Amino acid sequence: MRITCPLCGDRDRREFYYKGAAVALDRPEPDAGAEAWDEYVFLRDNPAGETRDLWYHADGCGAWLEVRRDTVTHAVLEARLAAEAAR
Amino acid sequence: MAELVAKSPCDGVLPLEIGSVAAREEDLGVITALLPYRAQGAALSERLKAAHGMAFPSPNRATGKAGARAIWAGREQALLLGPAPDPGLADHAALSDQSDAWTAVRLEGEAAEAVLARLVPVDLRGSVFKRGHTVRSQVAHMAGSVTRVGERAFLILVFRSMAATLVHDLKTAMEAVAARG
Fold first, then answer.
1. pLDDT, position A87
2. How far is the alpha carbon of A18 from chain B, nearest alpha carbon, in Å?
3. What topology does CATH give the domain B16-27+100-179?
4. d(CA A61, CA A74)
5. What is the pLDDT of residues B119-141, one digit of tens each?
6. CA distance A13 to chain B (A)
7. Which of helix, strand or coil describes residue A29?
């Protein structure tokens, strides 16, 4: 498995650390209410298909990336800086 | 008073020469991490040019030359190798002195590329990785930095605490490449 880091280029999976679903990029406002916070903290999709994760380029440039990938085909579709995805 | 003697990271384990490849420790002088403040990248680059003669390197690139080099070291950071940093740089970037934090090894020789091919999961062949190119990647299992500084020469940086491990992994790879004749 390879991920194309927007800074470093095409790199092996071993350079990256996997965080999990990219929910941290959509953090609710403090007063969003219990339901929104319950969903943010506890509820995760488990898609057969396209998913968005956060990966850390630990042994590369040190950037957090938002990676779109397919859990069925294992294809990595896109990777961009989490800083840009969060804007 | 005790006499304290400074030792270099690879004291006692380098130099090493196996087959056509030599590894020796580099004394880089002062090492400073440059971390530009938001939207200050261009101004920092100008100041760096005026003070030390090289631009702030773009990703995967190194600028300057032996004695005063800047190598890209990650997202929005570079390492200034050699000169003590001009105080004016601090107007545009956070500076941190890392002189004692890194192990620097120069790997040179006919088969240096073949040695690194066993350690670094990135294509470092001369056709794609030319002088002035750099990568942040793994060296064996360590986070490191590899820069091409000559036609057959590379500058390898890992954290200082990893010096003996780096030399061990380099030695193993150099022996394996040499054994193939």
1. 65
2. 16
3. Gyrase A; domain 2 (3.30.1360)
4. 24
5. 999 999 999 999 999 999 999 99
6. 10
7. coil
